[in-house]
Amino acid sequence: MLPTVAIVGRPNVGKSTLFNRLVGKKLALVDDQPGVTRDRREGEAHLLGLEFTIIDTAGYEDEDPHSLPGRMRMQTQAAVENCDVALFMVDARAGITPLDEEIARWLREGDAPVILVANKAEGKSTEAGVMEAFVLGLGEPIPFSAEHGQGLADLFQALLPHLEREDGEEHEKEFYEDEESAPLKLAIVGRPNAGKSTLINRLLGENRLLTGPEAGITRDSIAVDWMWTNDEGEERPVRLIDTAGMRKRAKVQDKLEKLAVSDGLNAVNFAEVVVLLLDATRGLEAQDLRIADKVLEEGRALVVALNKWDTVEHGSALYQGIKQALFDGLAQVRGVPIMTVSAATGKGLDDLIKVAFETRTAWSQRISTGVLNRWFEVALEANPPPAPGGKRIKLRYITQNKTRPPTFVLFGTRLDELPESYRRYLVNGIRKELGFGAVPVRLTLRSAKNPYAK
């Protein structure tokens, strides 16, 4: 495990900008308005050869613990309690505020070492703000600019004594010999208030993600590493990815919500299996089908989970109705697994993870060319390709050139005239006969070039 560094401070001092600079990617959402970050986000930071886990936290606000800002503060406090070092960030342009002083008092009472960072310290006009930070009683502030990368060497020197291993050993990274033992990258997507963060908290057994009655609490896509224990008692690594709720595009007017939805769609690209979480009390809506279609379009394996199943009446009729609607709405992939779960009670969650692992196995498998072409010959014999205009379409052989998603190349002549219905016949046969189930399968057609075509 890498040592952990938590960035804390009041809203809009530049915490997410520093986080993005240290991880080398724009992972955290950044905007001029305060309070963009709500959940704590982790990333692997690299600073002049120093490696550590960096945690971006929500802006610390003095509010009622039951309010949304109050619950955000509790997430920040949990991050600091478990970190090796806290980076306390203040705004050198704005100077020290009463809230900065309150945060400093709280940090002084804790056990974590604190490094004071005076951000936005570009130019001489901010020198007074940097000097003012001495009143916080946390030692000498580091003049810094997260936006421009100034002060990184000073930050490195301040972090080094806290993060270096006493025995001189480097922190080990985990390597996996094969795809099956690698962490399952599992993204949870759905409309706002479907219970995505609650589900992940239930799996983890802790309030790791911010939840509440308000719709749209989650903004950033948050990844959390976790170990799942299967029926045989074997531990399997999982990377759980929580995403922002996705509403209809026409309803998404707010700039931050657009950024959050875009971040969620980006998380789908990095996932292996995606769980589309539905609120069973609201049934299946058109937006759910749009999200599912987007997941399959990106070639990800899909599992549908009906949440809040413990509160549903006439469950059998509802289940059959949703199953039929998915069958009709997702014509390109029939038979997507549908699970009934309750994030509130934990019922069905173990089965959900088990099915997610099985789905990844199908999504990752490779079929030998020999087995594939034996199936292909039987498929052609059972249903020969059509002969448009009296001229036969010749299908010669098929091969699998990629996995994750499984992708096949079909070779033959006059393939530009092959009807879409016959192409679907082959794809459905691959799924059904070769064990791919309901994962997205891609089929590319390739004809030999005719030297006499001109």
Automatic annotation (TrEMBL):
Gene this chain is encoded by: der
Binding-site list for GTP 2: 190-197, 242-246, 307-310
Entry function: GTPase that plays an essential role in the late steps of ribosome biogenesis.
The species this protein was found in: Sphingobium scionense
PROSITE patterns xrefs: G_ENGA
HAMAP family: GTPase_Der
Keyword list, A-Z: GTP-binding, Nucleotide-binding, Repeat, Ribosome biogenesis
Residues that coordinate or bind GTP 1: 9-16, 56-60, 119-122
GO terms, biological process: ribosome biogenesis
Domain (EngA-type G) ranges: 3-167, 184-364
Protein name: GTPase Der
Lineage of origin: Bacteria, Pseudomonadati, Pseudomonadota, Alphaproteobacteria, Sphingomonadales
SUPFAM superfamilies: P-loop containing nucleoside triphosphate hydrolases (SSF52540)
Molecular function, one GO term: GTP binding
Subunit structure: Associates with the 50S ribosomal subunit.
Family in the record: Belongs to the TRAFAC class TrmE-Era-EngA-EngB-Septin-like GTPase superfamily. EngA (Der) GTPase family.
Pfam family for this entry, one: KH_dom-like
